[in-house]
From TrEMBL:
Organism: Noviherbaspirillum humi
GO molecular function: transferase activity
One family name in Pfam for this protein: Acetyltransf_6
Protein name: Acetyltransferase (GNAT) domain-containing protein
Taxonomic lineage: Bacteria, Pseudomonadati, Pseudomonadota, Betaproteobacteria, Burkholderiales
Domain of life: Bacteria
Keywords (A to Z) from UniProt: Transferase
Residues annotated as domain BioF2-like acetyltransferase: 57-182
């Protein structure tokens, strides 16, 4: 079946695809000259008992949730405009000096499609002064919920609001699906943050191929490696 799928690919200069962690055999792609890189996500595999989920959180996560709700008097809103969430998401990239790798319009198209299927929800943490501290955007299917996008105001990150958002998202996910996938990151600070929710590290494959010599040269120059 994989060989048939590969045969149907159009001519391309660059191919990259992240596979679902349940797919562990990429040999037919290897035989066709593709490359594989292992990446990691973090998954809560059982949402049946929220007491056990909460107990599995690192002390920092539990402390952040309590601090956000009790000390900072933060409430979670799911009725604010998507533009408010996108603003928080943009701040996260700006804080790291990075460009957002997708457009607002792209997110809005995803949101519209998921809203029609009733399979998405986003949360924004707001304090008594109306300031937006953080937010998370979650989608789901019958198997799992996925933490698709997060965001936070750099000036308000110490409030613990993002932890509170995700805790609420996990509780709501338990009503509609079986697992919660944090869509883990290879960035060290992000990995540490999601790991503290007691989730299980789970490998998945990134499959790629770059037939274009021009792109290979460009990548080599960008990484400071001389193309052979």
């Amino acid at each position: 079946m994989m060989e048939e799928l590969i045969a149907q690919l159009p001519r391309f200069d660059y191919f990259t695809q992240n596979w679902h962690y349940s797919q562990t055999n990429w040999l037919p792609f290897c035989w066709q000259g593709f490359q594989q890189t292992t990446r990691y996500t973090y998954i809560l595999n059982d949402l049946q008992d929220m007491g056990n989920v909460w107990a599995g959180f690192h002390n920092n996560v539990r402390r952040n949730c309590k601090s956000a709700s009790e000390r900072h008097q933060i409430t979670l809103r799911d009725d604010l405009p998507l533009s408010d969430f996108l603003s928080l998401n943009r701040m996260t990239f700006q804080r790291q000096g990075l460009k957002v790798p997708y457009s607002d319009e792209y997110v809005r198209r995803i949101d519209e499609a998921c809203q029609k299927q009733n399979c998405r929800k986003y949360y924004i943490a707001v304090d008594r002064e109306g300031r937006r501290h953080a937010g998370c955007y979650v989608v789901w299917d019958k198997n799992s919920a996925y933490g698709l996008i997060n965001g936070s105001d750099p000036a308000l990150r110490s409030s613990g609001a993002l932890s509170l958002c995700l805790w609420q998202a996990i509780q709501d996910a338990a009503r509609v699906t079986q697992k919660f996938d944090f869509e883990g990151s290879m960035l060290q600070p992000v990995e540490r943050f999601v790991r503290h929710f007691g989730a299980v590290q789970t490998p998945y494959f990134n499959i790629s191929k770059m037939p274009s010599r021009l792109l290979r040269v460009r990548r080599a120059l960008q990484s400071g490696i001389k193309e052979e």
